[in-house]
């Protein structure tokens, strides 16, 4: 793997539209970098905008799921899929949001080794099952989430976050997208 956002080496639109430049500037200010996934999508501004709108809605909008829980789902799905980009980026987010580097590492390697409560265990079990065998999901899996205290809306959010990261894992793996080096040292 290289430090390039994608092995496909698609060039960013030049010049970037003002709104995109502003978004990248916000990323630089808040994160200290522009994530390579955004740079990779910047070959097509419509695709970049669709990606960021869906990501921001799933990961940042109001939900019964906390930001940490959504990041935990991202890591577990990415662990099943062995997506280097997302394991690195979202593992860093789990470390940062939880204040617990061990939690981030456990989720990356084997989420069942992490210290989790019953709610988190049910949520991550569902995300893992959905990733491994989506056609085998049935009401027993949803009932396990309800028994752990999740509403039908929260179940929708869990499924949506897991589905999104299944898609992004496949794009990242298919294009050999490399994570920004800065992620490796964050929140350790």
Classified by CATH, the class of the largest domain is Mainly Alpha
Q: Provide the residue-averaged pLDDT.
A: 93
Overall, the morphology is globular
Work out the number of β strands.
0
Largest sheet: none
Q: Quick recap of the structure?
A:
This protein is an all-alpha fold and 188 residues long. It folds into two domains: 18-60, AhpD-like (Single alpha-helices involved in coiled-coils or other helix-helix interfaces, Up-down Bundle), CATH 1.20.5; 67-185, Up-down Bundle (AhpD-like). The protein has nine helices and no strands.
Write the layout of secondary structure elements.
Elements: H1 18-31, H2 36-41, H3 45-60, H4 67-81, H5 84-98, H6 101-110, H7 118-132, H8 139-147, H9 152-175
Helix pairs in contact: 3-9, 4-5, 4-6, 4-7, 4-9, 5-6, 7-8, 7-9
Characteristic terms for this protein:
188 residues, 2 domains, 9 helices, 66% helix, Single alpha-helices involved in coiled-coils or other helix-helix interfaces, AhpD-like, globular, mainly alpha, single chain
Task: Give structural notes.
There is one protein chain. The protein has helices at residues 18-31, 36-41, 45-60, 67-81, 84-98, 101-110, 118-132, 139-147, 152-175. It has 188 residues and is an all-alpha fold. It folds into 2 domains: 18-60, Single alpha-helices involved in coiled-coils or other helix-helix interfaces; 67-185, AhpD-like, CATH 1.20.1290.10. α7 (118-132) packs antiparallel against α8 and α7 (118-132) crosses α9. The radius of gyration is 17 Å and the shape is globular.
């Amino acid at each position: 793997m290289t430090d390039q956002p994608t092995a496909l080496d698609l060039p960013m639109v030049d010049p970037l539209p003002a709104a995109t430049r502003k978004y990248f500037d916000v990323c630089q200010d808040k994160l200290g970098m522009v994530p390579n996934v955004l740079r990779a999508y910047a070959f097509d501004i419509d695709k970049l905008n669709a990606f960021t709108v869906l990501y921001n809605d799933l990961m940042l909008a109001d939900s019964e799921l906390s930001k940490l829980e959504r990041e935990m789902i991202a890591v577990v799905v990415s662990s099943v899929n062995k997506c280097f980009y997302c394991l690195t980026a979202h593992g860093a987010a789990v470390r940062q949001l939880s204040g617990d580097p061990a939690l981030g590492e456990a989720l990356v390697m084997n989420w069942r080794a992490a210290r989790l409560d019953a709610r988190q265990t049910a949520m991550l079990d569902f995300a893992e099952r959905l990733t491994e065998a989506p056609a085998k999901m049935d009401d027993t899996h949803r009932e396990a989430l309800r028994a752990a205290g999740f509403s039908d809306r929260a179940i929708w959010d869990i499924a949506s976050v897991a589905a999104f990261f299944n898609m992004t894992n496949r794009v990242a793996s298919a294009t050999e997208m490399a994570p920004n080096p800065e992620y490796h040292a964050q929140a350790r």
